[in-house]
From TrEMBL:
It comes from Thermanaerosceptrum fracticalcis. It comes from the Bacteria. GO terms for molecular function: rRNA (guanine-N7-)-methyltransferase activity. InterPro entries: rRNA_ssu_MeTfrase_G (IPR003682), SAM-dependent_MTases_sf (IPR029063). Its EC number is 2.1.1.-. The lineage of its organism: Bacteria, Bacillati, Bacillota, Clostridia, Eubacteriales. This is Ribosomal RNA small subunit methyltransferase G. It is found in: Cytoplasm.
Length: 238
């Protein structure tokens, strides 16, 4: 892997990886490309694109105001581990729960957690609508992050039930993020959240825009949320 390229990108964003952390990213990339041949984990396969669109992009969440590295974080719809595993690599004190609804991805994540020796990290097979009603997970996390999963009105119902009061939900979005937020304001408030901040980024070389929408949990989520599996997507809150 082009470790110097990743190191340069991160240092320009005031993120300073160690040699050991860069090696973990190199192993991550190698495992991702190998497993991708069998399980189609990502459509992004070119080396620089993986570095920019997966590793660097995932770490933009650290640029929110007041980021705390000693926290509990849940990554919902993590796929091949984004953004949760890059955040864990750079912030080893994070306690990370990776959630995905496809078992083949959980198999990859379990392997990766062992390969990278990521202590305090677990991969869980499950659906947001069911896990969000489970006392083991409900309102237990300082941060919930999610990237490329659903529109914000739907995603908020999936994610906010996991966030403890005072915690934050980070939605990784593209240029459509502001429009999605405007359509989700009432839903976010009903779920116990309020806008904390939005941060714009432009990915290097790609020139593609990113928007991270940060919602702070200001009140407990009403017990009726999340609704039964499938309902949030079919009937989004308005």
């Amino acid at each position: 892997m082009k470790k110097d390229f990743l190191k340069e990108l991160l240092e320009k964003s005031e993120i300073y990886p160690t040699a050991e952390q860069l090696e973990k990213f190199a192993v991550f990339q190698e495992e991702l490309r190998e497993w991708n041949q069998k399980f189609n984990l990502t459509a992004i396969e070119e080396e620089e694109e993986i570095i920019i669109k997966h590793f660097y992009d995932s770490l933009l969440g650290m640029k929110i105001t007041g980021w705390q590295s000693r926290s509990r974080l849940l990554d919902l719809g993590t796929g091949a581990g984004f953004p949760g595993i890059p955040l864990k690599i750079i912030n080893p004190d994070l306690q990370v729960t990776l959630v995905d609804s496809l078992q083949k991805r959980i198999g990859f994540l379990d392997h990766l957690i062992q390969k990278l020796q990521l202590t305090g990290t677990q991969a869980v097979h499950g659906r947001a609508e069911e896990m969000g009603q489970n006392k083991e997970y409900r309102e237990k996390f300082d941060y919930v992050v999610s990237r490329a999963v659903a529109k914000l009105s739907v995603l908020s119902e999936y994610c906010l039930p996991f966030v403890k009061p005072g915690g934050k939900f980070l939605a990784y979005k593209g240029p459509e993020g502001l429009e999605e937020y405007n359509g989700a304001k009432k839903a976010i408030q009903e779920l116990g959240g309020n806008l904390y901040e939005m941060k714009d980024f432009v990915l290097p070389k790609q020139e593609s825009k990113r928007l991270i929408i940060v919602i702070q949990k200001t009140a407990p989520t009403p017990g009726r949320f999340p609704r039964r599996p499938g309902i949030p997507a079919k009937k989004p809150l308005e």
